[in-house]
Amino acid sequence: MLAFLVLHEMVRVKGQIADMALCCADKDPRVATMTRLFFKQLSQKGNALYNVMPDIISRLSDPELKVPEDQYRIIMKYITSLIQKDRQMEALIEKLCQRFKLATEERQWRDLAYCLSLFNYNERSLRKLIENLDCYKDKLHCEGVMACFNTLMTNTSKMARNEIKTLVTELGDKIEECFTVRNTDNDGEEHQENARSEKEEFAVPAPPPPRNQRRRQRPARRNRRRSSSDSDSS
Hints:
Layout: H1 2-7, H2 15-22, H3 29-43, H4 48-60, H5 69-81, H6 86-99, H7 106-117, H8 123-131, H9 133-136, H10 143-157, H11 162-201, H12 211-233
């Protein structure tokens, strides 16, 4: 009933649409088939699927929902394949890059990177990735994230025009620069820490006071004692 209402634009759903997307990987083949048919029909309703894609991605990536990663990838691989318009893909790529800034869990980073690896890239969409590098550059150290970007660049370079290959190379160079800067910063911090440890280890202790100074102090104490005894005797 809900599917009928959504497809006939009689009701708009956001939160529930992600729960429906889970059924794309349902154990019951009939449920999975019907759900996939629903999303295929939804993709033919103008921007209907595009409008709910960010909610589906963020909802299924929610750590509290605990969707298995392999199940998540099955769902997103199918639904993402239904986005065919270049402008929709470009806008989604930019939105996914922006969501990296809000993601706090490594699993969320991998999910977002995987979704990015599923798109077919043209020149404009590749530029979106390059322009939004600051959004995800601090997540590239994650092995799963970097693996998705490697897949993205490899697949995009296959049978591509020279202009696209040039942009892929530019993206790869910028990613490499991120790792170089990160390693340099880590080396600098390690060097400072080592220098601090060596300074503490080999610190020269303060020298004791000279002997003649200590000898001079002792008679002074005796003189004070004598003066006090003289005053008592008087």
